[in-house]
From TrEMBL:
Pfam families: DinB_2 (PF12867), Pentapeptide (PF00805)
InterPro entries registered for this protein in UniProt: 5peptide_repeat (IPR001646), DinB-like (IPR024775), DinB/YfiT-like (IPR034660)
Superkingdom per UniProt: Bacteria
Domain spans labelled DinB-like: 101-244
Lineage: Bacteria, Bacillati, Actinomycetota, Actinomycetes, Pseudonocardiales
Protein name: Pentapeptide repeat protein
Length: 262
């Protein structure tokens, strides 16, 4: 005899370990997943309509088709310069950073035409524009200033970790801060200049080396990383978060136009 359906609608699961769980005959209409790790998972008998998936897809098959290469090819077609974000030599990293600087210049020019208050507004529950810039400062602090340059506590007070990162002594997380765009850009320019100095001085030998573990609390943990991996993390963060920012700016412009009656 079928068991009666349990009503858990509206529940929130935060920092819960559901590894090995099984979901059968479950209604997930309207659910939101964020910061989810699904490895060695199997989802069968799905009906998916109006579903948006954002993330990294490796060995993900849909009806027997590995969608990862298809998604990668389509993203590179839409954004031809995206392929430059996976460089293998120093010149490639310098070219990639040239692209990042140029694209962000255009995005910032757009943002400056908005009502400054809108730059603190979240779109769809995501970071505001200024929070996105603060997070990129955190990424540079972590992977370049701490991991590559060896500063055990490089974080600025406005640096913003990802939401799911556990609270860590010495690492700031002030979500209530509302700095002006100019304040955030001053920090941003300094951190981008740090990345510029690193890539401009990059050699084949250093690119192929590993970092020296940095002791003390913080992120990344006190282990060694390939230098190339650290630099690729920053390129990926810069590329993806600029796309998110552009997406959200479109919505903020629409909101401003509605408010102004245009």
């Amino acid at each position: 005899m079928p068991q009666p359906r349990k009503d858990l609608s509206g529940s929130r699961f935060d920092r819960v370990d559901l590894s090995g769980s099984e979901f059968r005959n479950v209604d997930m209409s309207g659910v939101r997943f964020r910061g989810i790790l699904m490895r060695d998972a199997s989802l069968r008998g799905l009906e998916m309509q109006n579903v948006e998936l954002n993330g990294e897809f490796v060995n993900v098959t849909v009806n027997g088709v590995d969608i990862g290469p298809l998604v990668e090819a389509e993203l590179n077609r839409r954004h031809p310069e995206r392929a430059k974000m996976r460089p293998t030599d120093p010149d490639g990293f310098r070219e990639a950073w040239d692209v990042v600087e140029r694209l962000w210049d255009g995005t910032l020019q757009r943002a400056r035409t908005l009502d400054p208050l809108l730059l603190h507004e979240s779109v769809g529950g995501e970071w505001s524009f200024t929070e996105t810039l603060r997070h990129l400062a955190f990424a540079t602090d972590s992977w370049i200033r701490r991991c590559i340059l060896g500063d055990p506590a490089p974080w600025h007070e406005l640096s913003l970790p990802w939401d799911e990162m556990p609270d860590t002594p010495g690492v700031p997380r002030d979500r209530a801060a509302r700095p002006s765009l100019d304040e955030v850009l001053e920090l941003r320019r300094d951190r981008m200049a740090t990345m510029r100095r690193v890539v401009d001085g990059l050699t084949d030998e250093f690119l192929c080396s590993d970092t020296t573990p940095v002791e003390g609390p913080g992120w990344p943990p006190a282990v060694s990383f390939p230098v190339r991996e650290c630099l690729l993390v920053i390129l990926n963060e810069e590329w993806e978060h600029r796309l998110y920012a552009e997406r959200d700016l479109n919505e903020l412009f629409r909101k401003e136009n509605v408010r102004n009656g245009s």
